[in-house]
Amino acid sequence: MACSCTRPNYKGPGVGIWALALSLEFALGVLMVFLGSDAAPDPVSSLENMDQSLKDLLVNGSAAKAVTIIGWFHLVLAAACGVFVTLGLFVCGIFLCPLCILGWVQTAFCVISTFVTAAYLRKYLDVAAAAVTGEAPEEISADVFFAQLNSPSLLLASVLSFVCSVVLSRAAKVSSGESVPGAALMVESMGLYAAIGAFLGAGGGGVSPTPALTTLWVALCVLGAILMNIRACCCEKICNTLMIVLFGVGALLSFITAVVFARIYAAVVADPLGNAEYARLFVVMEAGIGLVVAAVLSLAACVMSLLATAYAARSLICCGDGVSSS
């Protein structure tokens, strides 16, 4: 839709997908700006009762500055894209043409934000995991201290940025002939896949089994994005058939992920010292809260995947064109 440069289509699924993508990016930008600015408050007031070394870590560290700059870039990109989307969808389709480039720039920048926030968070989670076995370093760097103070917000920023990249990549390629239910189911399913992958990758601290599950979820997102973009150009029926398989795999993986983390949580609660690796993961994921969140997100993704699979299969069998049939 973004590259079609045709007359505006305010009744198509593009309106909702672009609205979701831009709202997510605006929220991400505001979160990162607030996170970066709030991490280095006025040392005269907020830090007056803190040790001087901690003041130096907060004020002189580079992490807060980097997060703030990235947040402002997100706000600028979202505002610029919002102008073109509004004009293109409601005034003249020619305004959608710049989104051929701008949409992919936003997608790439969201991926960069995911890696940056996850990298900062990982530095702290490595220390937290090492502390369980008594191997934590005596001194921490400015970046680690920043992540320690803001670990929940960094995790949220990482998840939001990755979800935003998936939704933006879909918005940049949605066609005016797609059905609203089909496009919505695809975007919501892929968004949940991205949220789970980013949550486990950034919040799991590299503790088993999060690396393997993160790889599977990210691979599922990448494969889905590739299929959606290929389908926008050619091989529509083949790609729709493959999307049915992808949603089915997503439902199965969602169920497995939910069961795995529910079992880990139950095992640690029943016997905290029974499994050292489970105990490390329990500590890294905010005293088990992250395990519950991962299980709940996985259950939501399982339900959404089953609905998407059923809708895609019914559309393909009954209508012939699959999820893109209007």
Automatic annotation (TrEMBL):
The chain crosses the membrane at residues 15-35, 69-92, 99-121, 154-172, 184-206, 212-230, 242-266, 278-307. The keyword Calcium does not apply. Keywords: Membrane, Transmembrane, Transmembrane helix. Coiled coil: none annotated. The keyword Isomerase does not apply. This is Transmembrane protein. The lineage of its organism: Eukaryota, Sar, Alveolata, Apicomplexa, Conoidasida.
